[in-house]
Amino acid sequence: MNEVLQELGLVPFFTQQLADAALLQARLGRVMAVQRSRSTVVCGSGDRLVELSPALRRKAAVDRPTVGDWVILDASLSRIEEILERKSLFKRLGAGESKELQPIAANIDTLFIVTSCNEEFKESRLERYLALCAEAGAMPVIVLTKADLADDADTYVRRARKTRAGVPVEAINALDPASINGLSSWIDSASTVALVGSSGVGKSTILNTLAGRLLASTGEIRDGDKKGRHTTTHRELHILPSGGLLVDVPGMRELGVADTNGSINAVFDDIDTIAAQCRFADCNHESEPGCAVVRAVEAGALDSRRLSNYKKLLRENAVASASLAEKRARGREFAKMVKAGKAIKQKRTKPQWS
Fold first, then answer.
1. What is the pLDDT of residues 320-333, one digit of tens each?
2. Cβ contact 47:40 at 8 Å
3. Does the structure show a pLDDT above 80 at 351?
4. Which fold has domain 89-248?
5. Contact between 188 and 162 (Cβ < 8 Å)
6. Quick check: 78 and 126 in contact, CB under 8 A?
7. pLDDT tens-digit series, residues 24-55
8. pLDDT digits 0-9 by tens, 269-285
9. Could you tell me which of 141, 143, 149, 154 has the C-alpha nearest to residue 118?
10. List of residues 6+ apart from 232 with CB closer than 8 A
11. Helices (H), 261-302
């Protein structure tokens, strides 16, 4: 196997998709960065700034190349022709009125969900990231930065562990290489890790410390409201000197969920377990008689905040998923109209032989 491709994390899952072994040596590459309509792809022969094929440009955003994708270039190595099947895909619902699923990073093995040991810490935000991570098919690790500045970092660790049972939690000082040794243990030579979280929580600092050099600019959280300044402006996959790859995802002000119903239930499996004891199978856990979930909240066995966020994510997911389904249906109807129009045009222009 080409040494460059091996360093980029090429594993049998991807090579087994190649019908022609010659593609492995010449035209297979990995997307390292995306700049509007162009992508930086590294293949065995080096870096290439490439465009998309017309067929890929017509696809929905979620089906176009994103950082981390393995792709096949054309013979001239100037255009992406095909995206290999993904092992995982971290995506979100587009911000604003677009209401379109947007790919964030593909083929991620581990997702470092980064937050700070200060006012920025929010369990509800962590639960949202955990739901998106479950949908992506990646392994989550919650990373608590600025632990060295907190009066009681252990309190934040306990709160983070309650968001989903079994998820590892690492409390670190991102500036101290010794402090992030625990993070290094989650990265092997073939793995790809993504750093996600709000602006200013220390994602770029983690990247620089793991790399042992400056790869991304860093900023500070504002003293007044503890909100971060945007430092990372685009997604880029970096090869770490110790092996493995890491992408620092810019902070996202909106992190919409859609098509994630099963993943939300997985994150809130404790509520689902309690709900099985409700009198009615379709209980909304509001004021229905015999609601085991409401009883658990009243007894202090379940956090009311957690139940509120669970309901909020389910509502948001239902609305967004319905909107996406409607948009897809309109797209299919439009495609049928175009196809029918072409057929009529061909029939009219077909030569008539006497």
1. 888 776 665 655 55
2. yes
3. no
4. Rossmann fold (3.40.50)
5. no
6. no
7. 888 999 999 998 779 999 998 889 999 999 99
8. 999 999 999 999 999 99
9. 149
10. 203, 204, 216, 217, 248, 249, 250, 251
11. 261-267, 269-275, 292-298
Question: What CATH code is assigned to 3-83?
Answer: 2.40.50.140
Are 203 and 211 within 8 A, CB to CB?
A: no
Cα–Cα separations (whole angstroms), residue 87 to 10, 33, 90, 109: 12, 18, 10, 8
E strands, the chain, where? 28-35, 38-43, 46-52, 70-73, 79-83, 89-93, 101-106, 110-116, 139-145, 169-171, 192-197, 237-239, 245-248
Banded model confidence at residue 136, pLDDT cuts 50, 70, 90: very high
CA dihedral 217, 181, 113, 245 (to 10 degrees): 70
Amino acid of residue 34: V
- The whole-number pLDDT of residue 352 equals 58
Q: Identify which of 230, 212, 214, 220 has the alpha carbon closest to the alpha carbon of residue 176.
A: 212
Spatial neighbors of 123 by CB under 8 A, at least 6 apart, are 159, 160, 162, 163, 305, 306, 309
pLDDT above 70 coverage of the chain, percent: 84
Given a contact cutoff of 8 angstroms between Cβ atoms, the answer to whether 169 and 142 are in contact is: yes
Nearest Cα neighbor of 174 from 140, 213, 214, 203 is 203
First to last CA, the chain: 62
| Rounded distance between C-alpha atoms, residue 89 and residue 103, angstroms | 7
* Count of all residues that appear for the chain in the document: 354
Pull the structure tokens for residue 231: 């430092």
Domain boundaries along the sequence of the chain: 3-83, 89-248
Contact predicate 200/220, CB 8 Å: yes
Q: From CA 197, how far away is CA 266, in angstroms rounded?
A: 21
